[in-house]
Amino acid sequence: MARYLVVIPAGGKATRAFTLTGYGAILKPFINAVEGGATVMEGILKEADKSNIHEFVVIVSSEKDREFFERFFNPLSVDPGLRDYLISKNRRAQLQQLLDLARFDIHYCIQDDPRGFGDAVSRAYGQIQLQQEWGRPYHGIVVALGDDLVYSRTPAMKQLLSAYEQTEHMIVAVQNMKREDAKKYGVIQVSRTRAMDASFCGHRAYAPVGIQEKPESPVPSMVDGKEKYLAIVGRYVLRPADVGYLSAQEGSIERELDFTSLLQRNIDNDQLTVVEIDGEWHSVGSALDAQMTFIRYALGQYGQEGELGEHGKELVQHTLRVLQEMKVLELVEPGLYRLVDAVGESGSGGEPSEVGSSKLMDHTTH
Length: 366
Prior knowledge:
Blueprint: E1 4-9, E2 32-34, E3 38-39, H1 40-50, E4 55-60, H2 63-73, H3 75-78, H4 81-88, H5 92-102, E5 105-110, H6 117-122, H7 125-133, E6 140-144, E7 148-151, H8 156-167, E8 170-177, H9 179-182, E9 186-193, E10 204-213, E11 221-223, E12 226-238, H10 240-247, H11 260-268, E13 272-276, E14 280-283, H12 287-299, H13 306-325, E15 329-333, E16 336-339, E17 353-354
Parallel strand pairs: 1-4, 1-6, 4-5, 8-13
Antiparallel strand pairs: 2-3, 6-12, 7-14, 8-12, 9-10, 9-12, 10-13, 11-12, 15-16, 16-17
């Protein structure tokens, strides 16, 4: 079976989400944004686990941050009495959660000189070389940004790997966005779709022709006769040689190691495939982003089994009640609501929306 490594750049200071990190007391990957109040990091681990990947390199900015991650992944080693305490309180489910975290194989690299995203990814090259020397090479390297999540039925990493295993190209995840939103991200232009066999589980795969980094005037791609602004999502698959290329580069933009040069190099050599993900990209890069992410995952519990499903049902009922109190929604009949416009009257052209388990949420697993 092919062996993969997940690299998680997690050295950012989260200045745009300062209030959610306790003004720097915690790191962005530990913001509670996933179902049940779990952290972003747990969301990434769950995505990787469902994609059959269990080895990680986490890029941190200091020894202090490394200790923070170690406390998260293996709290029983830091506090040996915690196991007995949980057992004495009959908290075996919580104990199992801690044991599940400890089973992942985690390595750390410290990026003490913040030289950009490309440099952060390149710090994993030592682990890649070491495994190669031991005769246990990685087939590919998944890069997952520590403040990004993808809400989907099929894990985003699995979607990307289904393209990687067919093409052996560098893979970049994208999502179609409105033009005004695309300005905030890298935008890739594509010329055609790439043919994939039935094992491909993304939405669609493309051959790229160009890339723009946070463009003021993003250039769309024409797909099926329609304009699409394909913004880069925080998920990639790199070949080991791609990480080697980054590790050999000198800083090029204000001393930062430019990741875009790797993208452009592979575009020029027709060695890059763009995968439009089947799902929703969410970020916790700002306080608003994090709140929207939390709401999406919290409401997504609706329809699930067990305690999370019960919580989801209560959250949906509470949300509908609050929106009615705010006069944003009005109840037409049981299970049928109408959106109210800004002046407090029912929208003249709006059709009522049915709220039920089949229509409220498009995705019930992720």
